[in-house]
Amino acid sequence: MQHMSSKRGKRARRSSAGQPLPDEMMTEIVLRLPAYSIVRFRAVSRSWAAMLSSPGFQDGYAAMADARRMSMSKFVFFAASPASPRGATAVYSCDVGPVRRITTTTTDLLFNIDRLRPGFLVVSSRPCHGLTLLADTRSFAYWVCNSSTGVFRPLPRRRCHDLSSAGLVFDDRTKEHKVVHLFCHVSRGGESEAMTMGCEVYTLCTPSRPWRPASGGIPGRLGGVVICALLYEGAATKVPPVYANGFLHWQLYPDKYLIKTSSLTRRRSRKRKWKRSGEE
C-alpha cells in the first residue's frame, strides 16, 4: 500500500507540474518580450498567431513599450553611415549618462539604410506606435523604420513636387499605420502657371496597395492654408507635422499661432488658433 501511494504521489506531482499557465499570465509574459521574439512566436501555433495579431494585444504591447521607453536610459539617433557618408544613413542607440559628448564607445550601431542621404534627411518628430517616418527631401523618397527590430522599408516613390510634406498616423478604427502626404505642384507653360494641390494616403499594412487620394481631398477654402503650411515647413522650420490626439498638425504663421489639422478617423481638415503657453 505504501508503494502504491508513493507512485500516486509522483504521478500527482508530475501532472501538477505539467499544467499549462493561464492565458492571462502567458499574455503578461509575452508583453514583456522584445519585438523580434514576438515575430518568432507567431509561428508556434495558429492560436498564438491570432493572439499576437489581435488589436487588443497590439495596443497593450504598444502601451507597455511606451512605458519601457520612458524608463530606459537610451535614445536613438540618425547620422551619416561610416561606410557611405553621403549615400546612406546609420541608426544608432546611445546610453544616457554623465558623458559630455557622444563617442563610438557610448553608441551602438543598430542598422544602415542605403540610399537615404543624411544631408537631406528629415525624421518625424516622434515615433508612432513604434514606427518612425524618414524622408529624403531632395528625392522626395520616404522610409518607415522600427528602431527596436531593425526592420525598415521604402515606400513607393512619388513624383517630385515643388512643395511636399508627410506625416505618419495610426488609424484606431482599422489598427493600421498610414502615411498622409500633402503636396503642391506648379506646372509652368509660357507666361502662365497652373497649381495643383493634393493629399494622398499610403497604408502600411498593405504593401502592394499604391498611394490613393484622400477621401474628400482638400477643401477649397483651405487651399491657401495648405500652401502656407508647406511653404513654412520647407523654408523655415524643416519640421514635419506632429501627430497627436488623432490629428496631424502643421504649423502656420508663427506670429499668428495657427495650426492646420487633419484627421483620418473624422475625415476632415480645419485650421484653428494655437494659443501661446500660459494663454487661456
From TrEMBL:
Please give the InterPro entries that the UniProt record associates with this protein: F-box-like_dom_sf, F-box_dom, SCF_F-box_component
One Pfam family per UniProt: F-box
Biased composition range(s): Basic residues: 1-14
The ranges of region (Disordered) come to 1-20
Q: What sequence ranges are listed for the domain F-box?
A: 15-64
Alphabetical list of PANTHER family matching this protein = BNACNNG10540D PROTEIN (PTHR31672), F-BOX DOMAIN-CONTAINING PROTEIN (PTHR31672:SF2)
The protein's name: F-box domain-containing protein
The species this protein belongs to is Oryza glumipatula
Q: What is the lineage of its organism?
A: Eukaryota, Viridiplantae, Streptophyta, Embryophyta, Tracheophyta
